[in-house]
Amino acid sequence: MIDTHATLSTVKVNRADPRLDLRIGFQPMIAKGTSNPFAWQAVATGVDGRSFAAISASLLPEQRPALEARRITLTLERAAALGVHGGETLIAVPLGAAAGPAEPLLSHLFRAALAQGIATNRLVIEINADERGDLNHAIALADACTRRGLSVTLDGFAAGPVALKLLARFTPRFVKLDPSLVRGIDASLSRRLMAEGVMRLARNMGVTVIARGAERRGEHEALEAMGVRHFQVETASLPRADLPRREARNPLSAPTHRRLAHHNRIAFPLRTAAQPAMALALQVA
Question: Which of 26, 135, 160, 230 has its CA 20 to 30 A from that of 86?
């Protein structure tokens, strides 16, 4: 039974604490053969550029739920302000499984979504497939999401023991290959073999695989050869209104821009390529 009265810990971080001063950016996820994102992943950093994980590690364990709640609130506020909550595009919201009990965090997520007019069926909860080896917390969060009807992504999947045990316990909607597995995959037989193993598991389970961190043409070609059709672009790009969710299977068009070909970049740059001003527009204090 879902505890609808679950609340976050009463231990709070001082609102003046600079560690709560987060900036939210969004990275697009794109299906092969398309230019419109089918999803945007929220990425939180400190104003000094520190990663969210580093900020969380600097807090006491009892203070981390408050930081997680802050990230949820700012993510949905920023998504609403940018207009990505319309249409069918998904919003990927990372949640730290070890940040605290799952139900209070998800209750806060539902309240924040309601306040911003964002439908919860548009939200995909991202759980790190490693979670510092804490399998029980990750399973508890995944189970809580399932009970509430929320889709789940296993992020940072690299065929490690925790990732495989998680995949054995439940079926996520998406699995994201970790950048450490993706980068240089065209030149590494061991990386290709591990990624092919993940692809076989995913196909048998009906799970969509997303490659995160592919930057070179050789990496894209190697991933495409094993059946990867979805990619996350790790650069900020300004969202446009009413972007449809698309998980197309059309062949990838060859690049036509000579400069892109010369520098061996990704084969499907966004039409709204990020400029410095756009990247700044994606951040919130």
Answer: 230
